[in-house]
Amino acid sequence: MGKLEFASRTSVEQIEEGYELVPKFGPDGLMPCITSDASTGEVLMLGWMNTEALRLTIETGEAHYFSRARQVLWRKGATSGLVQNIVEARIDDDQDAIWLRVEVAGSGASCHVGYRSCFYRAVPLGAKAGQPLVYLEGDKTFDPGEVYGDVPNPTQI
Amino acid sequence: MGKLEFASRTSVEQIEEGYELVPKFGPDGLMPCITSDASTGEVLMLGWMNTEALRLTIETGEAHYFSRARQVLWRKGATSGLVQNIVEARIDDDQDAIWLRVEVAGSGASCHVGYRSCFYRAVPLGAKAGQPLVYLEGDKTFDPGEVYGDVPNPTQI
User: Cα separation of B147 and B153, whole Å?
Assistant: First the structure.
């Protein structure tokens, strides 16, 4: 199979009303990717893709990202086995963000901290603004120390 | 009510395992925000927030964004009436992305092109990579020309 190539962006009409994938990456060469569980609709993570990650994701049907912390292309699940198989990929109106609906292999988790979703804490709103975050999941689904070993934690202060 | 203030980020443990909201904004001062329909789980849009947009969102329970095209703070629905009332807000593990589950006022649409979701086109995968995008919604829910009039289109080539 030949390498998938992306066409140039030429007009608002082409971008918003067309049938051609003409993705736009930010000044850092990256595009945000929303990844949700295809069956529950729960958002699992917000990742980033460069051109190559987007191309591999589309060609293989498995989510690939670009790690900003490690500055490398990253096949999700390469270390943890928690591969994300894509049920549906969608591009947004101005084609600078992508949404993947996935089925996750293994335990179904997607968060390096050990939870199912990276979004495991709710932010109190309105009259409760400023109150402590609320944990929404119970126990972690895996022990990050066992799974990742000496791999550096990607969270940056 | 006093202005909500965000604490400083001091450790990975504080950020990932704590109860304190310590958001991180990118080099451009912005954080990506995923907004989904609270009842269907459909992702409606990917927006951006600066500190003030995040603060107002949390304090008012209505989604506020920062428009990168217009470089202004933006209360969603101010022009269109399609206000997003937040059912739940969640922060991710490293606290540099937020997810809003919302109920949208009026027609329920969130996309300036006129569709319900900004993600109205699917990207063919695998053996079908490179084939035309697939439109997932039927007719537009509103006529953007009528609603926005002379407001410049935010899509940038």
Answer: 12
